[in-house]
Predict the 3D structure of the following.
Amino acid sequence: MDSIPEDVKARLNAILPEFSARGFNLNGVPTHPNILLANESSLLLKYSDEKYFLFATYDFDPTAPNMNHLKADFEMIKVVALKHALQVEDRSKPYPYHKVPDWLNDFKNLESLILDNVDLQNDTILEGLNLKVLGIQKAKLDSMQLIEKISKMGGLEFLLYRSTFSFKDVEELKRRLPLITIINTSVK
């Protein structure tokens, strides 16, 4: 990581272990990513021809005119992690909930999505995504409604959650989706 600018290196060192600690599996990911984009609202990392990771805030807009040069790279993204801010956050403070951005529908190769502080009350985007991994760290939605949404997602293999579901909710998810692996990322 010697060629990576210090401010980007600091954000990478803060973000990657945090997501890894939350159950976002970064095993086998090289430590020297090719940084395609690094700003206050996003880090777009390329690890190989097939592995593109986007760590972004909910304010990030890949459809903005200044992002046109990355359009082909955005189409290759397999993993998106959306947070309130691209830094280690004080989890004892309340953060606002954010809507799932519409632009996720444009990421046709998306396999994994991690959402933190997300408002899913009127969301229809999740049901249209063909995800293998869904992580919900904190959501604004009745848990039974969220279970309904997740139950409609075909192809889901892993569900990561933190303080989103009760024990009863997890049992209901297991009953409805017996083939997916459900991981509580707040348990160490």
